[in-house]
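sry for the spam today, last one i promise. struct tokens for design, 304 residues
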């Protein structure tokens, strides 16, 4: 029997004016006729409820390869640099924290500067986060009661694209932020060089991603609640371009994703590749300037 699925309205404008855009296996992407947002519909119930991430947690997020890469010092260097530039201290909530690696790196690099808390729906990775000294809160972020607690910053690193109702999560973040508090987002860029060149062959067009943002649609989503302090392109992985072009869009397993992350992390830490890394940074800056980098990173402020 086929798994039950849920039809979705546009996650940005809420309208039901979609037209078919792309089919990849069982994944069906549509484009909103009103705001041009790209999103998956219908989607399996397990992605809407979050059950998939709890079930798959130990298989992928706790694999030795994934943990080794996530806890490597270079893993969140761009996110940490961006975060530190805008938020030098205070209370931080990381939504979709998985195994807690970002908060672990934040506290390790800047001890005493932050009061941190992570939250997720995936139980096994949260157990691991606690074992590394990262405080966590379990369950659906939208339904969590923080009482009078307010945060200086809320982060969504590679999370918003997975959410059936991203606006509800941003509303909740706005609610629990202090006046002038900051919200940080990182999402894949559907106008990137990789997405343009590979199309349906791109590995990040896959079932776990429910929302596919461009610069314009991301702005439409966030500007109803926040003012945008910074929006920039970031990251570029030429290995993905090469592998996905060669494989002609064959499905990439979680193990293969973890292996690629390990290879990328190892390359960043290899001193023999320093000249190549300098050229890579120049390429990344050029792609970012023309909105062709792999991801979009946004810094948002709750006014007042």
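last one done:
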């Amino acid at each position: 029997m086929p798994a039950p699925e849920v039809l979705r309205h546009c996650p940005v404008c809420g309208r039901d004016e979609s037209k078919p855009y792309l089919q990849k296996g069982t994944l069906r992407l549509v484009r909103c006729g009103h705001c041009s947002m790209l999103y998956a519909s219908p989607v399996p119930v397990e992605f809407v409820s979050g059950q998939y991430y709890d079930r798959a947690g130990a298989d992928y997020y706790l694999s030795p390869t994934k943990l080794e890469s996530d806890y490597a010092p270079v893993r969140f260097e761009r996110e940490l640099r961006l975060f530190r530039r805008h938020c030098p201290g205070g209370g931080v909530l990381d939504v979709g924290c998985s195994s807690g690696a970002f908060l672990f790196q934040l506290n390790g690099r800047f001890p005493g500067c932050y009061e941190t808390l992570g939250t997720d729906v995936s139980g096994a990775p949260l157990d691991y986060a606690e074992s590394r000294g990262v405080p966590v809160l379990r369950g659906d972020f939208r339904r969590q009661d923080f009482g009078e607690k307010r945060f200086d910053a809320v982060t969504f690193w590679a999370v918003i694209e997975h959410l059936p109702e991203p606006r509800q999560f941003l509303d909740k973040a706005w609610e629990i932020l202090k006046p002038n508090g900051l919200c940080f987002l990182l999402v894949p860029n559907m106008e990137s060089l990789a997405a343009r060149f590979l199309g349906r062959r791109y590995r990040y067009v896959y079932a776990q991603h429910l929302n596919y943002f461009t610069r314009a649609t991301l702005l439409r989503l966030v500007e109803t609640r926040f003012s945008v302090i910074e929006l920039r392109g970031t990251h570029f992985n030429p290995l993905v371009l090469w592998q996905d072009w060669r494989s002609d869009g064959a499905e990439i397993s979680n193990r293969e994703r973890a292996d690629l992350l390990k290879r990328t992390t190892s390359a960043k830490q290899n001193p023999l590749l320093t000249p190549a890394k300098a050229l890579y940074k120049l390429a990344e800056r050029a792609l970012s300037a023309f909105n062709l980098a792999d991801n979009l990173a946004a810094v948002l402020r709750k006014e007042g």
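The longest helix spans residues 254-269. ok im logging off now
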